[in-house]
TrEMBL record:
Subunit comment: Interacts with microtubules.
Protein name listed in UniProt: Regulator of microtubule dynamics protein 1
Organism for this UniProt entry: Macrostomum lignano
Mapped TPR repeat ranges: 185-218
Region feature (Disordered): 1-25
Subcellular location as annotated: Cytoplasm, Cytoskeleton
Pfam families: RMD1-3 (PF21033)
Domain of life (superkingdom): Eukaryota
Entry keywords, A to Z: Cytoplasm, Cytoskeleton, Repeat, TPR repeat
A Gene Ontology term for the protein's cellular component: mitotic spindle pole
Length: 235
């Protein structure tokens, strides 16, 4: 039986991740796998580092896509190794949705219930995880924001298509912000968007400004800041 990865290795990987050194963390995790030390703890971390590297790709959509799919395969292997691991459910939900974005609206809608199921299972085990709360908020927002055509498309897949409201989205997003203030420009932006949809324009403008002022500069952050700047002009 292969030797298991020591907690010291996992701690070192987490420290590299916290320092923004996703490539070094990814290399170390791949070395563990090459040595036959496979586990859910290795696989979900590898998914996390690949996702982080994808977010740092400046303009290469193909490179970003390759990293997202590598992350997705790692999340799947982690979940197969340990079906009750909350981190594996968290990253499976994130990556199932991200791969769906590459595959189009139809596929993303088709995946929607399974995506939420993974996030809900993660939240059951870790109710104060800001990322999971954010993801559930985004899920609710996107479902509430489906167009008439998209709703008809959803009705073709499910006897009961997914439903949600902007109020439900806002509740999750604010919980995420409370759990980890200012942790993600996208969370600030989605709070602004939810307030905007609810016609609460002063609150929307406040969070759009917070998004624009956020210091992070990954792909997601740049997209969030761009959208916030555009929407703030309508407040």
């Amino acid at each position: 039986m292969a030797e298991s990865t020591s907690s010291d290795i996992l701690t070192a990987v987490d420290e590299l991740h916290s320092a923004g050194k996703e490539k070094e963390a990814r290399d170390q995790l791949k070395a563990e796998l090459a040595a036959g030390r496979e586990s859910a703890e290795i696989y979900w971390r590898l998914a996390r580092e690949c996702r982080g590297l994808a977010n740092r790709c400046p303009d290469s959509e193909e490179q970003r896509k390759a990293l997202i799919y590598e992350a997705f395969e790692s999340a799947k292997k982690g979940l197969a190794a340990e079906p009750d691991n909350w981190s594996c459910h968290k990253w499976m939900g994130i990556l199932l949705d991200l791969t769906g974005r590459f595959e189009g609206t139809k596929k993303r809608i088709e995946n929607s219930f399974l995506v939420k199921e993974h996030f809900t299972k993660a939240l059951d085990k870790k109710p104060d995880d800001a990322v999971v709360l954010h993801c559930l908020g985004v899920w609710c927002y996107e479902v509430a924001n489906l167009s008439w055509l998209q709703r008809n498309m959803a009705a073709a897949f499910f006897a009961k298509p997914p439903t949600s409201t902007y109020e439900e989205a806002l509740e999750y997003l604010l919980r995420a912000e409370k759990a980890s203030p200012n942790f993600y420009a996208s969370n600030l932006n989605y709070i602004g968007k939810a307030y905007y949809q609810l016609k609460k324009l002063p609150e929307a403008k406040e969070f759009f400004q917070k998004t624009i002022n956020h210091e992070a500069d990954g792909h997601d952050d740049r997209e969030a800041k761009k959208e916030a700047a555009s929407l703030m002009k309508k407040c």
